[in-house]
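User: Show me a protein chain along with its predicted structure.
Assistant: Here is one chain, sequence first, then C-alpha cells.
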Amino acid sequence: MLPSIEQPYTTLDEAANSLTELQQIFRANADRRAVFVTCYLVMTRDMRNKTAQGFFADNAWVTRYALAFANYYRQAILDWSTDNISQVPECWQIAFRAAEADTTLILQDLLLGINAHIDHDLALALDRVGIQPESLRHEDHLKVNEVLVAATVPIEQAIGRYYAPGLNLLGRTLGPLAVIAANLNIDLARNHAWNMAAQLVAAKADAKRASLTTELDKQASLIANLVIGPTHEMAFLVPALKRLEADHSWLQVLEGLE
C-alpha cells in the first residue's frame, strides 16, 4: 500500500506533501508514474503559494477546486494500487499500464497523465465544488491558466533533471513542453472541462450525469490511445529515442539504428 493516499487531502499542504512522498517512492522503484507526479507536484505547490498570496478573486473556492482535482488523482492511484481496477477510469488505466510496460517515452508518460487529469478529472472536480456564480468562478478558472504557463519552465527542468537529461538538449531547440501544450492544446482542454462541468451541474437526472461522465472517460481514453499509438507503430525507434532521452549523443543514437 502506498502511504499518505488513503484519506482525502484536506489542505494543499497535505496534497503537496503526499505528492512529494509519491514522487520519492515512484522514483526509488523506477516507476514511470513518477513523471506525472513530478509535474503535478510543481503545479500543486504553485497553486498553494498563489492561493496563499491572494492571487485569485476567490482563493477559498480555488483551494477547494485544487483539492477536489488532486483527490481525483489520489483516488485513481489508490484504486489501482489496491486492485480496485473497475473503479479506475479507463484513461488512467491506459496511463498506468503504459507506465508498467515501460514501452513509452518520458514525454508520452507526461502526456498520458496530463490528458487523464485535465480531460477527465477536471470537469468532475469543478462539478464537485460548484461553479456558481459562473462569471466569477470562470475568471478564476482562467487565472489558473496563468499559473500553468508560469510553471512550464520549472516542470521542464524537473522532468529533464530527474528522468530525461536529453530533453534539456531538445528543449533548447524544440521546447518539449511547448510542443506538449500545442499538441494537447491544454487551454482548449481546460475550456472543454469547464463546459462539461456546466453540463454536469445543469443535469437533473442521474442517467444524464452518468452519460456525461462516461463521455469524459471515452474522450480522454481516445486521446490516450493516440498518445501511445506512435510507439506501437514504430516500436523499432523506441530504444534509440530512449537513449536520446538519457542524453546520449545524436551520433550514438544514429549508430543504434544501424
